[in-house]
């Protein structure tokens, strides 16, 4: 069993609740709009981090962040990008089981053609009346269980 913490749109704010929800994860995926290198450093103290660059990630610290990333975790292939509208491949044909994105600040999980599309929402500053959320995957063999957790009401 492999547990993956999924987060997006922190916008330089890493809430203490995030660390509590990620205390048992094996890997963390940040789907962009990180905001600062400090967020990635703090997350990296919990587990290895894979992060992509979002539209607010500017400056020298962000130059090393790719626009998308392919990741194999627990035998499952994940494709990570910030804005789902920038997806320029067919995940089914490419062999991905999960596509992770952020950007909208709206948590969402759905399945199409056998591929799970997952947006953990935003764990950063509150935007409008949207919830503050993050995600978790539990990977066991060929099964990927996804969940969205609200971290602040």
Explain how this protein is built.
The protein has 153 residues and is mainly beta. It contains 3 helices and 10 strands; from the N terminus they run E-H-E-H-E-E-E-H-E-E-E-E-E. The protein has a single domain, classed as Purple Acid Phosphatase, chain A, domain 2 (4-Layer Sandwich), CATH 3.60.21.10. 12% of the residues lie in helices and 37% in strands. The longest helix is centred in the N-terminal third of the chain and has 8 residues.
Give the rounded overall mean pLDDT.
95
User: How much of the residues is beta strand, in percent?
Assistant: 35-45%
Q: What level of helicity do the residues show?
A: 10-25%
What is the CA-atom radius of gyration, in angstroms? 14 Å
Series of secondary-structure elements, N-terminal to C-terminal: EHEHEEEHEEEEE
What's the main sheet like?
5 strands, mixed
Shape: globular
Any idea how many domains? 1
Strand order of the largest sheet: 3-2-1-9-10
The CATH homologous superfamily is called Metallo-dependent phosphatases
- Specify the CATH architecture: 4-Layer Sandwich
Give the SSE layout.
Layout: E1 2-7, H1 16-21, E2 27-30, H2 37-44, E3 49-51, E4 68-73, E5 76-81, H3 91-94, E6 98-100, E7 108-112, E8 115-119, E9 132-140, E10 143-152
Parallel strand pairs: 1-2, 2-3, 5-6, 6-8
Antiparallel strand pairs: 1-9, 4-5, 7-8, 9-10
């Amino acid at each position: 069993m492999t547990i993956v913490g999924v987060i997006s749109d922190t916008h330089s704010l890493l809430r203490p609740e995030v660390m509590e929800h990620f205390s048992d994860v094996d890997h963390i995926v940040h789907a962009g709009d990180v905001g600062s290198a400090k967020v990635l450093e703090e997350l990296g103290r919990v587990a290895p981090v894979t992060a992509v660059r979002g539209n607010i990630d500017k400056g020298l610290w962000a130059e090393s962040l790719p626009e998308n990333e392919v990741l194999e975790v627990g035998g499952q292939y994940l494709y990570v990008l910030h804005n789902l509208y920038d997806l320029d491949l067919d995940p089914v044909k490419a062999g991905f089981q999960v596509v992770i994105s952020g950007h909208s600040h709206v948590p969402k999980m759905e399945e199409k053609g056998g591929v799970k599309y997952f947006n953990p929402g935003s764990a950063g500053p509150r935007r409008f009346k949207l919830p503050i959320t993050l995600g978790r995957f539990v990977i066991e063999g060929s099964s990927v269980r996804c969940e969205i957790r609200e971290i602040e009401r």
